[in-house]
Specification:
Strand order of the largest sheet: 2-8-4-5
Number of domains: 1
């Protein structure tokens, strides 16, 4: 590795906070993108509290190298920033509502950051289950689900990082939002 590349690896990314560019997301702490694998988030429809719990990687993963025509070459996307600043979730239903109602009708909240892939994936499944994201319905209409989530991905490993206290306490915020609408 050249000295120029080594220097690039050692330079920390800029400090991000609510006063800098983090897109439509809100978060309570400052952070450096290069120090985290990804974040757990909640997107909430303001009018009634309908929510979506998901996860997003901050940087492209995969393999550092790939094989092209039988030769190993660097993967040009590896380590580059994802589209997280513009990201609106992977739910088709949620994205249709965002398109119809506008982004201003929703809050985009980063719940917490995670350093490992395992910790992030586990925290997402943990909070989805803890908040009853699949079976939860509105009190005023038992036929309408209170969450956009339609799948909880299986966790097939023992994570080295566990859900943070902030993640664990977020369930009560979700329930309050739904009850007060």
């Amino acid at each position: 590795m050249t000295q120029k590349n080594m220097k690039k690896l050692q330079e920390p990314s800029p400090l991000l906070n609510k006063d800098t560019e983090i897109g439509h997301w809100t978060y309570t702490r400052s952070f450096r993108q290069s120090e985290w694998f990804g974040f757990l988030y909640c997107i909430t429809r303001e009018e009634d509290g309908k929510f979506y719990i998901g996860k997003k990687q901050l940087n492209q993963g995969g393999r550092k190298t790939k094989t092209v025509n039988g030769k190993r070459v660097s993967n040009p996307r590896y380590g580059k920033s994802t589209d997280w600043k513009r990201y609106t979730g992977s739910s088709d239903t949620l994205n249709k509502d965002i398109k119809n109602l506008g982004k201003d009708a929703f809050t985009f909240e980063i719940i917490d950051l995670y350093k490992t892939k395992g910790g992030l994936y586990y925290a997402e499944a943990y909070l989805q289950m803890l908040s009853d994201a699949l079976p939860l319905t509105f009190k005023h209409d038992k036929n309408e689900y209170a969450a956009y989530n339609s799948v909880i991905a299986p966790v097939r490993f023992i994570p080295s990082e566990h859900p943070t206290a902030k993640t664990k306490s977020f369930k009560s915020k979700i329930i309050k939002r739904i009850k007060h609408k």
